[in-house]
Amino acid sequence: MDMFGFETTENFDVSKIPAQYHEFLFTRVEKTIHSHPYNYDPFLIYINEEAKEHTSSIYTDRLLQQDWDKHNRLCKKHFDDEGQYWNKREPKKIEAFLSDWHDKKVILVANIQYVNVSSGFPHWRLDFYY
Prior knowledge:
The chain is of the alpha+beta class. 24% of the residues lie in helices and 20% in strands.
């Protein structure tokens, strides 16, 4: 965990991470959350080393735009809150959330943190497959 309370992938075994995610390794980003807190490069929070390549992605801020009430109801069900921070949420709970969201079984592949440069507010890309 970094000084801001965010999980990072500084200690991940790179040999187990698909090449498409290497650019998101915290140790490889140029503008970090430490050096550029409102304009940092995206970085990997979680990788499922056993999952196959993702087929879909969703950004967490888009969940709110698609259906605010559904987002809050499913967050309350799976995470016991209606929060919008996804960096500390357990991958299995995120899978359950996404499965309910899509009405089918979902396997989470990755969770990547981004920042909205206009507001400095973080958001996350959730990569998954059905």
